[in-house]
Amino acid sequence: MSGEQEFSVSDAAKALVNEIIEKNNWEPISEIKYYPGTEDGDGYCSKHVGVEIIRPGGTITLFIKYSLDFVGLPIDRFYSNEIYFYDVVFPAYQKFISEKNIREGFRHVPKCYGTSSKNVIALENIKDKGYNLFDRRAIMDDNHITLVLRTFAKFHAASFAFKDQDREGYDKLVTNWDGDLAREMRVDSPMKKMWIHQIQDGLNTLDPIEDKAILDRCDAESLGNLVIDAQRCQNEYSIFTQGDCWCNNIMFKYENGNKSNPIDIMLVDWQLFRPLSPVFDISYFFYTIASEKALAKLDTYLEMYYAELTDQLKQMGSDPEMLYPKEVFLKEWKQYCKFGFGISFMLIKIMLASKDEAPKMDEIDFENVERVELFTKFDNEAEFLRRMRILAQFMIDR
């Protein structure tokens, strides 16, 4: 291959690109171009690289992600988990869904062209198909929230139906899944201490008099424990969930470029996918992006999510009342929704940070992370405080 332009890309990533070219018979290749795949602050545990494979008959574009070097963070497990999803789990779901007569089943995952055991994943570059990240510093409106929740309902329904109709196959997927991060998070682990520290920092920004009711009801340690120990909350209703549902792991496509009218989405990060209650996905997403107006409509959103879930299950030939009764869903929401609240103390700050303020994750020693300040500079403190005060008051009022 000739004309390859130099860009800071790992040898493992380049090797995977070459394997994909050979596998798909794309030769002869005129040129391969590598360029930054995202801006600073858009990805934290990976390097993202765009690839143009220029051929006489046209150009093929890929999106490559590969791991950065971390101290004390189980990055290999993150990647093996995501590779397992792309190589094994989603293909099994695709086959299962394709055999059903579904109007609009779950398909919201980019095409994977290949993976490498050296922590490299090559996907279709969906930016070229019109998908873009949501402005993480903005509040999501009703159209975006509704589309995301309906999409999660489709994914969760596929998980429930697959578990119901091919229990042996589902159990095999769970048995071979190796993404249980809970065992990495021992009682005194730095990561657990970091979460508790971040939550306590958020609570410390509140006014001890004006916000006394919030401070009396919110305990940093219990919220931090729920965030880290979520994996231990598995039960008979657990199914594979996406696991990391913040807005930067969701890409939107808009009708005629109208940013108020999203027509499709893709879920683009599966490093933390795991078997849990669907409530963990929903609360994570909702509580990190909801405005005061959206919070007031929570019950409507939960009704809408559950209606989509039951419709999908019925289309696939399963009984929602047997698999996930509404009373169980609402009970689990009450039991586990604080997970999203706990996540929000760190995520909302990350979402509000400028690209210059975003934590440089590969520069953090995660073995001593409880002593590290993730934000040495943060100019959006007032907006962070406003959002957290609204969310915290909402949680105690519920």
TrEMBL record:
Listed SMART domains: CHK
InterPro entries: CHK_kinase-like, EcKL, Kinase-like_dom_sf
Pfam family, one: EcKL
CHK kinase-like domain mapped to chain residues: 121-315
Chain coiled-coil ranges: none
Domain of life: Eukaryota
Protein's name according to its UniProt entry: CHK kinase-like domain-containing protein
Organism name: Oryctes borbonicus
